[in-house]
Amino acid sequence: MKVVICGAGLVGYNIAKFLISENNDVTVVDNDPVLVASINDNLDCRGMLGHASSPTVLEKSGLGDADMIIAVTRVDEINMIACHIAHTLFNVPRKLARIREQAYLSPKWRTMFSNDSIPIDVIISPEKEVANAIIRRINAYGAVDIMPMSNEDIVMIGVKVKSESIILNDTVSKVLASAKYKDLIMNVMTINRNGSVLLSSVDTVLEVDDEIYFVCDMKQVKYCLALFGYEEKESKRFVIIGGGNIGSFLAKEYEDKNVIMIEKDSPQSRKLAEKFPNIVVINGDSLNLTILEEANINKDDICISVTNDDETNLLTSLLAKNIGAERIIGLANNPAYSDLLKKLSLDLLVDPRKITSSVILKNILYGVVKTRYTVYDNHAYILELKVAKRSELSGMQIKDIKLPKKCFLGLIIRDEKLCEAKFDMELQVGDRLVVSTEIENHKKLVDLFAPIQEFY
């Protein structure tokens, strides 16, 4: 597949890196010579200097015979123009764009992105995706990561096993097979134990402080988290720091609850107070301890810092924790803060670029791969793979599948329901298998699911 990426920032870079690993032909266009040099120096693809809104530049990038354009520059309008050019001048089949400005995404203007105006097949709104990610995490107390599979009712969750877990010192499969948990469908896919990444198995015994990823039905998330030592705590209030797009999304989600919002900008504070009459809006700087004390933050509150400044979010989170808040979520674009978060014992740090990249990658997957997530800093994959028509796996029992080494088949999604992967289960066309694998075995695993080629 030939892909042109407009924008060589962290999102564009990560998407290019992934597509290259899949043996795709990738060109990245950006008007920043430093970013283009980084692409050419570090990735096996073509970095091209130029403006993504220029038909001449896009023609030189090879857009004329490209299968897809992914527009993720810093400017919404450039992303829209690039997609428009891709459609009208070069007839590119698939067009994805990142659009931040919410005014463009209003239902009032929904026809703007039709084929007759600015044709875009997939629009990614980073602020909305980040807000949704935060909401998912709030609903899953104890989770450090939660991402949907192709069926959003089925989720992958990252969590650290606590000493209170009732699954300690026994195999996961044995615990789940007991009568007490007969209605629970879930499985542990990967484990990070003291820095070593392990794939799960039927004989896996969990230990305290294991960092695991498991897959389950959204309806059973709270029950599953309780197994690992996280009993849900009811939050009485939501304290939202920052009244931008993300803060507004969160305020709308929780406006029927007890919400306090702190916004530094006076005009924006007034707008928020008018838009959300049922919430308390405090105009002030969250780094001012008096302002935080006015919000009366305590251990039963969820404090969410989503301003546009990483340092403000980090320092506000520290202040809120010092005051007594027990659940804290902070926003940070700089990935370097992830390690700092662990050292400071804060709860969650949300990385907008990582979330945006994941959403975009989910929308460009093709063939038998329906969902793919990297975990533990790209040391392992968790995939959702579809049994295709003409696949040699169709009709085969699970016990007869010869998975590549260092792969683990955890669960099966059949008719949009999560099922246990029993040895005598016969696979059907349309089944989706949830599998974990080390990175180097990824291609062999995907090839196993590929349809058998027919020759005439």
Quick synopsis:
The protein has 456 residues and is an alpha/beta fold.
The name of the CATH superfamily of the largest domain reads NAD(P)-binding Rossmann-like Domain
Structural class: alpha/beta
Question: Any idea what the shape is?
Answer: globular
Distance between the termini: 25 Å
CATH architecture of the largest domain: 3-Layer(aba) Sandwich
Total DSSP E strands: 22
Helix content: 25-40%
Radius of gyration using CA atoms only: 23 Å
Query: The biggest beta sheet, please?
Result: 6 strands, parallel
CATH class of the largest domain: Alpha Beta
What is the CATH topology descriptor of the largest domain?
Rossmann fold
Task: Fill in the keyword field for this structure.
30% helix; 456 residues; Rossmann fold; 26% strand; single chain; Alpha-Beta Plaits; six-stranded parallel β-sheet; 4 domains; alpha/beta
